[in-house]
Amino acid sequence: MPLLRILHLVGSADNNFYCDLSRLYAQDCLSAIANRSCYDFQIAYITPDGQWRFPRSLNREDIAISKSMPLVDAIKFLSQQNIDLVLPQMFCIPGMTYYRALFDLLNIPYIGNKADIMAIAAHKAKTKAIVAAAGVNVPHGELLRPGDIPTLTPPVVIKPVTSDNSLGVALVKQVSDYPAALRTAFEYADEVIVEKFIELGREVRCGIIVKDGELVGLPLEEYLVDPDDKPIRSYADKLKQTDDGNLSFSAKDQVKSWIVDPKDPITQRVQEVAKKCHQALGCRHYSLFDFRIDPQGEPWFLEAGLYCSFAPKSVIPSMAKVAGISLNELLMIAINETLGNLGENHLKCEQTI
């Protein structure tokens, strides 16, 4: 059986932060998938200047010595590689939208949600409107542009409408805190969402995967929050920078986050709401949603993160592991959903090794 040729799409056409973030997750993925008997991995690495590279690994040295080329030359190169499917691992807006759409145009399938769905999910206000229309609880909020005056009475949470990893997010407890919080938020986006603060409670994340066409809810991940000391999660709770300047994970230490016991009554309730969100947004293959659980146990939708890097420390693989689904099996389930019968043949190959 021929090897399945998978292109890992890595980097960022936006900025160095997202470039490093993408490389962090993709490198973790590549080093973790030990069984490559069915795979031939290729790497496409995009830099903020829009140039493409095809390094043999994601080590900085290999990236530096690889040839840089513009999009038109990259397309010519890709057309000669017989790529079976793409694993997108870009987290910037262009990476989640334009580059996925490019592979639609090239008629090369990719794992994960389509470009138009990613564009919607990247805009927190649009996502909230869609899931709210499907009957999901969302905090009352308003969308602001520079110069707009917020009308909601604190406490509220301010979020740049298109940023991830809690960049620019702030809890405003009194009206006098508004100006500074808005200035910071507008540094990350030209639109800001202000929404009612939902009292704790708990904060959890729920992953959904599609297996054999059916939605499967994964065990929840819960995050360390406290009504007094840590009412919301910050950027520092998710990522940190090491002494050598690289990014690393900070939430995966069993202190800031942990997997909820599947027998916990909140699990089934949140999974049902997450499946409703998945369907409302038109997701495929997998999805990921954050929820605030209020003191009465009611889930409130916060945001969607419709991507998975298939790195061991990524959220969906962490959840799947607790459910008895290994990283290799999780990847093959996604390949099966993407490629149909071809994926099924390779899944059999994986299972017989």
Automatic annotation (TrEMBL):
Domain of life of the organism encoding this protein: Bacteria
Organism listed in the record: Nodularia harveyana UHCC-0300
Similarity section: Belongs to the D-alanine--D-alanine ligase family.
Keyword presence, Nucleotide-binding: yes
One GO molecular-function entry: ligase activity
KW Ion transport (keyword) present: no
Swiss-Prot/TrEMBL keywords: ATP-binding, Ligase, Nucleotide-binding
Pfam family, one: Dala_Dala_lig_C
Domain ATP-grasp intervals: 128-336
This protein's name: D-alanine--D-alanine ligase
